[in-house]
Amino acid sequence: QHSLFSAFSKFGPLYSVRARRNAAVAGPGYYAVIKFYSAGDASRAQRACNGQRLFQKSPLKVCVCTKEKGFQPQVLALKSNKCQELANHYLGFNGWSSRIITLQNVSGFDGENEELGKTLQKRSVKYLCAVEVSLPNHGVRTRGVALGEADIENGDDPLEFVTASRRVQKLAVGKALSSAFQKILLVVLENGKVAVEYSSSQEEPTDSLTEEELKGLVQV
């Protein structure tokens, strides 16, 4: 996988690289599935690498997957680490920044469940986070708001509570950062230049709030 990553990452940032052994009926060897963020990068990699000996004796057969399924899969938002990876690649490490506007503890009880005639309460830790992402060279600022939560099995254990709180804070910040990045559209041109647009289709009601209103926001 390391050799594959080194060879194909030259054409653009990679989302994932997975190498697998061939099925028994196909004979000895390996096949790999390499996912690019950009279809253009994938096409360039296919044209340049198909039939070439990149790091092995026999030439590689490289093709672009065009298989279509009978249904449209749900489009999931990129995780925050993937968003940062793309931003660093196309905008540069100094081309963007983020800051936490607010990170609130909105913990409480999830509610009551009836079991064998007894009322049970399950405690959870919840944090609400608002993040702003700024691209100063393009005059674009976006916000993301997200809720992170986790259940606590033993709410009386201080160590478990602190550990869960830290994990939930990190989760809330990551989800909020991802939400903010979903409103940024990167247009990569053939000459390598990058244009940035604000995607208004991803706007949320919280985008119209002031920072003070966001800091006072409580979500249950």
TrEMBL record:
Keywords: Cytoplasm, DNA-binding, Nucleus, RNA-binding. Signal peptide: none annotated. Residues 199-220 are annotated as: Disordered. It holds the Pfam family RRM_1. InterPro entries: DSRM_RDM1, Rad52_Rad59_Rad22_sf, RDM1, RDM1_RRM, RRM_dom. It comes from Gavia stellata. Residues 1-67 form the RRM domain. The lineage of its organism: Eukaryota, Metazoa, Chordata, Craniata, Vertebrata. One of its GO terms (molecular function) is RNA binding. It is found in: Cytoplasm; Nucleus, Nucleolus. One of its GO terms (biological process) is DNA recombination. GO terms for cellular component: cytoplasm; nucleolus. This is RAD52 motif-containing protein 1.
